[in-house]
Structures are given as structure tokens and as C-alpha cells.
Design goal:
482 residues, alpha/beta, Lyase, Ornithine Decarboxylase, Chain A, domain 1, TIM Barrel, 10-stranded mixed sheet, 12 helices, globular
């Protein structure tokens, strides 16, 4: 679907603020969002059959990708940027990012299939996962995509797979790579620098007992890693990722520094530049409390230049795997208020946005709070003195609440709520509670004259599709067992 809708451009000032800093051309992200919300209502993107939808700002996504590229650009340093597909597993999104030179970091056969469907080339695809099967590894090696082994047992598995066949070196390999390689795929090892946790334990991957990578501070682990590289000339990368939301930049930089120092130790031990690439993961936090983009990619890259200067001196290639920070600020969930009620003296707005789209916010509200914009039926800001009210979702359990006692203008039946900063991990990662359908997702582009164009990213899931994927073709199977 593609449609155009117009709206007036009153509202925030005309300037753009992207993840890399201000740009004086065009409308800023908040102004574009305000126009898109009104235009979505005018275009009929919400109705009885579709009372909730995701909206994605194409300009915002392109701005994020540009800011990332510019922040890390360094003469003489090859940099490959990939997007963590789990953050927005939607083929049109991956295709848009590929158009901006951003590849894919995949962690499952499904994510790899999505990346391939989007046309992302092998040289900009990286396979990570703590539980890769032999089939997954074999496919990756055959396709020539980069593989980061998670542990020493996986290296042993790769030894056997490498022996099955030999490939010619791929054009995207470093000139310093061995002339004869068992695979065209760059292969690395993920290490856990064990530098500590951020503010959200579930998002911290460099703790003492993290399930990811080889724990470097465990007795003898670093020595085994060096020996593993010495025994495998085809092992040419190191990968480290400290975590994402809740991890401060200094902690992230410390993890990169540990990986860099290990690469130096390996290369000194083997007597050549065997480790030629450092995959530094992603993890840039997102500010969910305002429209400000903080921290920026530029701030992180500059910190790395100060803390790990050798990373940028041309001896190593760099791979990044950012996810949330590329998409979050560009997404908004728009939902209708179905009923307004009260309980115990508190107002409750029952909406169609709940745990099925905002799973983390519902189950861990302290770690994942979202802003709520109260809108009237036409998508304009709701007027009225703010009062404490709960914003609840449609799921049939008491905890399905997006915001508690939030000070908002009183919401009534037919009003709307908008949830900014939901472009990553929200409408793209559906929680199939109560068999609620996956919502439609629409991308939008706002022209300088305030007109808005929408295109379909994903159709709303139909009842027939829900029934089909819930085993309808095998309806008689259990009853037939006697």
C-alpha cells in the first residue's frame, strides 16, 4: 500500500536532529512524527479491524545510518556496519538499511533468511549465536558470510566442517589473510571481557557468568584462546559485545580495549597479523525519556579513539553490530483508546497497545519505561489538565499496563495514544498473547510542505493466518490418537 495524506506543519521548529548531531535542513523528528500521526488518522490506517499500528520514519532511519557511517569513518580503516536483525526483523527495514550501506548481524536461520530476502550481500553479513547448529555453520561457510564462534566447542565443530571442503578466498577478505583458506567466510571467536554489568542485568553480556563467548578472566582461558588462534590460521577475527541498553559508554569501551589487547597478544605470539578485524558489537543506549538522541555515535567513536587508539591506526578492520540505536527513535506505535473507566479513584484508558507489542515495557516497566503521547481522535495532542491515569493494553491479564498513574490529559473512548521510540524491539517483535494479531507497520516520508506519504512495511496479520499458524491443518491429529 502507498498513500499520501497532508497535514499542516504547525508544531516543533524546523530543524533536524539525528543521532550524529544537528542538521539544519528539513523538519526535526518530533515534527515529522506529529505530522505522520495526524496523517495516519486521516488516511484511515486505524479502524475497528486495525486499532493499533506501527509507524516508521524513513528519514530518521536514513539519518541514523548516515550518522553511524560518519562517526566511524577513518582514512585507511575498513569499517563494516551491520544491523542486529533481532531489533527489527522486517525485510523492508533491512532493505532500507542495506541501501544505506548497513549489513546484517543475524543470530538464527530465520534472521539469515530475512537478510538474504532483503538482498544483503555476504560480505556485509555476520552470523552470531551461542547455539549454532552444524547445519547453520555449514550454510554460513558455504555462503561466505562471516561467522563468530561463541566457544571452544564450536571451534572444534568448525574444524570438522572446514575439513569437508575448501573454498577459494573471497574478494572481501583482508589482503593479509592466508593465501589458502578452508572457507571464504571470515571466522572469528567471541570473547567475554568480563568487565561487568550495566543497569539492566538482562542486557549485560560481559558479566562474570554471561552465557556469551569465552570468559577471558577464567583461569587459563586467555592462554587457550591464544593457542586456538595459533592452531587455526583461518581464525582471523575477535568479537566482543558488552551489552546494550543500560551499559555506559566507558564500560563498552573497556570491553573493546580488552579485545584489542588480546588481538595484539595473539598477533605477537603467532608472529604475523593473523587477527585482522575486531568486531566490537553494538549496544549504544537510547534515551527513552525525551526526543533527544543521547549518546550519539560520534561520542562513542570519539571515546574509542581516545581509549583504544590502536583500533583506528589502520592495522585492523572494524565491524559494528548496532540495533536499537539505529531504529528506536524512528518508530512510533499508534493505538486507539477503546474504553475509559476508573477503579479505586484512578482513571484507566484501555487501549489496543499492550504486552503484544510492548512486551518489555509491560513485564519490566522500571527498565523499559516508554513515553505516552495523549492524542485526540484526529491525532492532535489532547487538551485538558493532566490527571493521573493508567494506560492499559488489551491482553487478558492484570499486569498488561503500559504506564501507571501517568500524568496525562484525560483520555476518552475514541482518543489515541502514541508510544514514541518504539522502532526497535516493539512492533517488530510480537508477543502472541491471546492470539492478538501482529499489527500493520507503515513507513512514512514527510515532505517539506508537510505532506506525508505512507508505504506498507508489513500487513496486519489476519484471523485466518493466526488460525493457520496455530495448527489448523492438523486439527484432527490429537483427537485421532486413541
Amino acid at each position: 500500500m502507498a498513500c499520501d495524506a497532508s497535514a499542516d506543519a504547525t508544531g516543533p521548529p524546523r530543524h533536524r536532529t539525528g543521532p550524529g548531531g544537528p542538521d539544519t535542513a528539513g523538519l526535526d523528528a518530533a515534527a515529522r512524527r506529529a505530522l505522520a500521526l495526524r496523517a495516519a488518522v486521516a488516511a484511515g490506517l486505524l479502524d475497528d479491524e486495525q486499532p493499533v499500528a506501527g509507524l516508521l520514519d524513513v528519514t530518521g532511519v536514513r539519518d541514523s545510518a548516515r550518522a553511524l557511517r560518519e562517526a566511524f569513518a577513518t582514512p585507511g580503516v575498513p569499517v563494516t556496519h551491520t544491523f542486529a536483525v533481532k531489533a527489527a526483523s522486517l525485510v523492508p527495514v533491512l532493505r532500507l538499511l542495506d541501501d544505506e550501506g548497513i549489513g546484517c548481524e543475524v543470530a538464527s536461520p530465520g534472521e539469515l533468511a530475512l537478510a538474504r530476502a532483503a538482498g544483503v550481500p555476504a560480505e556485509r553479513t555476520v552470523l552470531d549465536s551461542p547455539a549454532k547448529t552444524r547445519a547453520e555453520l555449514r550454510e554460513a561457510l558455504a555462503l561466505g558470510i562471516a561467522v563468530n564462534a561463541d566457544n571452544e566447542e564450536e571451534l572444534t565443530r568448525l574444524d570438522a566442517l572446514m575439513a569437508e571442503r575448501r573454498f577459494a578466498p573471497a574478494p572481501h577478505l583482508s589482503p593479509s589473510a592466508p593465501a589458502s583458506r578452508p572457507s571464504a567466510s571470515p571466522v572469528g571467536l567471541r570473547v567475554n571481557p568480563q568487565v561487568g554489568a550495566g543497569a539492566i542485568d538482562a542486557m549485560s553480556t560481559a558479566t562474570a557468568t554471561s552465557k556469551f563467548g569465552v570468559a577471558l578472566r577464567d583461569p587459563g582461558a586467555a592462554e587457550r584462546v591464544v593457542a586456538a588462534f595459533a592452531a587455526r590460521p583461518w581464525l582471523t577475527r575477535l568479537h566482543a559485545h558488552v551489552g546494550s541498553q543500560g551499559c555506559p559508554l566507558k564500560l563498552m569501551a573497556e570491553g573493546v580495549r580488552v579485545a584489542y589487547e588480546l588481538a595484539e597478544r595473539i598477533n605477537e605470539t603467532v608472529g604475523r597479523r593473523q587477527v585482522d578485524t575486531l568486531d566490537i558489537g553494538g549496544g549504544l543506549p537510547v534515551d527513552f525519556a525525551s526526543d533527544e538522541v543521547a549518546p550519539t555515535y560520534r561520542e562513542y567513536a570519539d571515546l574509542l579513539r581516545g581509549e583504544v587508539p590502536g583500533l583506528f591506526d589502520g592495522r585492523y578492520g572494524i565491524v559494528t553490530e548496532f540495533g536499537r540505536s539505529l531504529l528506536a527513535k524512528s518508530g512510533t506505535i499508534l493505538a486507539r483508546v477503546e474504553y475509559a473507566k476508573s477503579a479505586g479513584g484512578r482513571r484507566i484508558a484501555v487501549t489496543h497497545a499492550g504486552a503484544q507489542v510492548a512486551t518489555r515495557t509491560v513485564f519490566a516497566p522500571d527498565a523499559w519505561p516508554l513515553r505516552v503521547l495523549a492524542l485526540g481522535p484526529e491525532g492532535r495532542p489532547k487538551q485538558g489538565d493532566p490527571v493521573p491515569q493508567d494506560v492499559a493494553g488489551p491482553c487478558c491479564f492484570a499486569g498488561d499496563v503500559l504506564a501507571r498513574a501517568r500524568e496525562l490529559p484525560p483520555l476518552d473512548e475514541g482518543d489515541l495514544v502514541a508510544l514514541p521510540d518504539t522502532g526497535a524491539y516493539y512492533f517488530s517483535t510480537h508477543f502472541h498473547y491471546n492470539a492478538l494479531p501482529r499489527p500493520a507497520v507503515h513507513g512514512y516520508l514527510v515532505a517539506d510542505d508537510g505532506s506525508v506519504r505512507f508505504v506498507t512495511v508489513r500487513e496486519r496479520q489476519t484471523a485466518a493466518e493466526i488460525v493457520a499458524e496455530s495448527g489448523a491443518a492438523h486439527a484432527e491429529g490429537l483427537a485421532a490418537l486413541r
